[in-house]
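On clarity, I found the account of how folds are encoded harder to follow than it need be. What matters is that the chain and its backbone geometry are given together, residue for residue. The format is easy to grasp once an entry is in front of the reader. For illustration, here is how one protein appears when written out as sequence plus structure tokens.
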Amino acid sequence: MNALGIILAGGKNKNLGMLTKLRATSAVPVGSCYRAIDFPLSNMTNSGIGKVAVMTQYNSRSLNDHLSSSKWWDMGRKNGGLFVFTPFLSNDSTQMFRGTADAIYQNLTFLRRSKEKYVVISSGDCVYKMDYNDMLAHHIKTEAEITIAYRHVPDDDIKKYGVMTLDENERLIDIEEKPLEPQSQFASIGVYIIERKLLITMMKEIADDGRYDLVRDLFSRYRKKLKIYGYKFDGYWRNLGSLRSYFTCNMEFLQKEVRDTFILNAPHIHTKPKDEPPAKFNSGASITNCLVGGGTILDGDAFRSIIFRNVYVGENSNVRNCIIMEGTRVENNCTVEYAILDKDVILLDGAEIIGTPDNIRIVEKGSVVAGS
């Protein structure tokens, strides 16, 4: 594929509460073994893109650690490979990334030194599988200057996204970020294709005007000047921008068709392996409809839950409708329902963490919860 990739992973997101207190949204754990960034990054390499820039900013330590060995995504190569860019601070410039367009603008040298004709841009906080070759073919067929991937979203959720209005040929008429009164049910999914030279030109132009956002300052402002088209994507896609969407996305991995899409069916989603031993279910355990990571030992009961690696659930403990992250210990006689236990949490004997479908409880990373 004659394209390079850019993954925008630098935004600050307070909607996930304590889950993004110490990590970027792109680094949140998903589906018992993945991080959010694994999905767009795997889509890049599975589509034949051999050069990818990840642009990160807030709480990036966990994300940088995850990306430290690029070989797992077939990015350990002489030509191309994986590049991680943070804001460039110097005596002359102390600016952090002021928006998605500014993140690209501050790294124009990367684009200038590249030779690929096209650029595929993706957000880093969405779970989906896409062959970008199909989108590029659509881009070329329509003779578009910019192509934006979109999908149909129900009325109740459409206000959370960038809403696109298209004509009968899928040319963009308007795009509005999180409108109060949406004019359509077509939501941008945060995937774009544009020619590299045009992207350089446009980033310089809007930066000179003091503008920093791709959607508001490029797509919306230039929608009549540039040929911007939509590309409809009908596959599985979830944005992890809120606690509710994060919890729902993980729970959907318990559905066979969703699980098979990412885990069983090629091309696969790649991640950094941890080389743990298989999960162990002891004789007193009862496991129903769960995904369980390596190194986990279960002596208690688990129902409809996502359990990551190196978790322990003790005797007579009951975990239901939960996300239990790496290194967490649930000791004996505990009850955990509708909860997210972050990494390295310890629930002492008899502890109870009980939420509801409308009020998911979160226990902060490293917390120790005493029993009753």
Observations:
- The chain has a mean pLDDT of 92.
- The longest strand covers residues 186-195.
- DSSP finds ten helices and 29 strands in the chain.
